[in-house]
Amino acid sequence: MNEFSPASDQNDPMANAVGLPRPVRHVAVVGAGIAGLAAAHRVTQLDPACELVVFEAGDRAGGVLWTVHEAGFQVEQSADNFITTVPYGLELCRSLGLGDRLVQTNPACRQTYVVHRGRLHKLPDGFLMMAPTRLWPLALTPLLSPLGKLRAGLEYFIPPRLDDADESMAAFVRRRLGREAFDRLVEPLVSAVYAADLERLSVDATLSRFRDMERQHGSLIRALRREMAARRKARREAETQSGARYSLFVTLRDGLSSLVEALVARLPRGALRLGSPVERLAPTPDGRWDVWSRGRSERFDAVVMAAPAHVAGPLLTPVDRELGAGLGQIEHSGTAIVSLGFRTDQIGHPLRGMGAVVPAAERSPILAVSFSSRKYVHRAPEGHDIFRVFVGGARAPEMAELDDSRLVPLVLAELRRLLRIQGEPVYAAAAHWPRTMPQYHVGHRARVEEIERRAARLSGLALAGNAYRGVGLPDCIHTGQQAAARVLGATGSA
Ligand SMILES: Cc1cc2nc3c(=O)[nH]c(=O)nc-3n(C[C@H](O)[C@H](O)[C@H](O)COP(=O)(O)OP(=O)(O)OC[C@H]3O[C@@H](n4cnc5c(N)ncnc54)[C@H](O)[C@@H]3O)c2cc1C
After folding, report:
1. Which one of 139, 172, 458, 462 has the lowest number of neighbouring Cβ atoms within 10 Å?
2. Which residue range is the domain that position 447 belongs to?
């Protein structure tokens, strides 16, 4: 049972009698990343009288979300925008009064490049992460050989697999589009998002809509072409209506830390405790929870566990060994972001895009580079550009752990080669994120269902965060909101 049942109600038979005030509920949130903050915010909305404590191990809120402003640049140290087709990020920003701070991607630079033999080439127009929606640009791209193009085009005629078994991203894409399209297009695009080993990454847990397309339409190309036609129609209809429309990704003008600040500002005074790692959790005989931090224990009616799964696992193992083991099975990879700023006149490449992804076959030290100030123009001072370079992930874990004194020169040399950059950067910094990217290996969905089933048996406990049902910010926000609703016994998606 996962219904919130305030223990004081159970102990005091009169507490629910008509006319008596409901006892104040005590709720703990563990972790002040975006999932924990979204949970805390939803708790205060659902029960303003609730006594809330947000335990955060670090010395600032936001988890990996962190914007710094230095030397005139706006530097996002991890996530730098979020998708708008999953509504929870947009909705949260609007409800916090940040709607007018949302910034769209620069329409002049929506192209993505792919590195091939050391040079940047445009991703064929209409290629959507996994498959082409237009065949002509695919036929003309220098990224694939004639045989590779033929094999990708044959996707139309490859018989679909109709069963429900999960499959690795690599196996799925090779089966549908062939080895070359996988190696040269899909592998770098997907690696840049999931920092994962695609031989192990689950299609079902990440891009399941492509498996659905195969099952329902028999071919990804056929399904995507139909979807694009429907979208064009919807766009034409939307153009006749009023209301804000957003690009596929958006960010906040003052940086994503402004979302964190807005959430923190709405917490009850004193609710956020920085430098307060939760060290132990234990259910009490009366259905509540004792939570230990800094050697002291406090009693709560409910707990939202929004720390990473590799932290939640050991904390919950003494409570339910199998739950702890399930959480422990979710591996995490580490990444680092190197931010490099230059005067625009130092850069030989025209940068007419959002960035470039790098296939594993290139043997480059980097996974991808985002042309951060082309994507969102407010991020660099006039006459300058800033790049965000991704390294590490499951492909090259050792890179994310390199000392800055070795990492920055390595990345700089690679950018000089790819983008024909002259001279020294005017800004350089690296942010390291060890064990922050949960790996959704084949079987992840079933694993998460089992974890959720076991967690649901613990009254007053709910899990939130990026380890379960999506690593993107909107999904993390949603897990936090749902966890809050669950521990407070509210129904609906809240
Ligand atoms: C480099 C990088 C780039 C990314 N880019 C994007 C992007 O552009 N768009 C997008 O949508 N997503 C992106 N993501 C993913 C997204 O940012 C994350 O999935 C999301 O922010 C994770 O939020 P979270 O709250 O689940 O976890 P976290 O942010 O990891 O927060 C967990 C919190 O728990 C705290 N904690 C740990 N242990 C304890 C303890 N014992 N007690 C109390 N607190 C504890 C931690 O200190 C941390 O603050 C990116 C991620 C990374 C790393």
Report:
1. 139
2. 7-62+256-330+441-487
CA 104 to chain centre: 18
Q: Which of 370, 473, 479 to mutate to test the pocket of ligand 1 (most atoms within 8 A of CB)?
A: 473
Give Cβ neighbours of residue 233 (< 8 Å, ≥ 6 apart): none
Convert 61-95 into a string of H (helix), E (strand) and C (coil).
CECCCCEEEECCEEEECCCCCEECCCCHHHHHHHH
- How many domains, the chain? 3
- Residue 48's domain is classified under what CATH number? 3.50.50.60
pTM for the whole structure: 0.93
Count other Cβ atoms within 10 Å, centred on residue 345.
10
Residues 308 and 447 in one domain: yes
Same domain, 276 and 410: no
Which atom of ligand 1 lies closest to the CA of 80? Answer: 8
Ligand 1 center to 98 CA (angstroms): 21
pLDDT of residue 494: 43
Token pair, residue 54, equals 């947000």
pLDDT tens, 143-194?
999 999 999 999 999 999 999 999 999 999 999 999 999 999 999 999 999 9
Candidates 479, 113, 457, 110; CA nearest to 316 is 457
**pLDDT, tens digit, 9 for 90 and up, residues 190-241:** 999 999 999 999 999 999 999 999 999 999 999 998 988 888 887 777 666 6
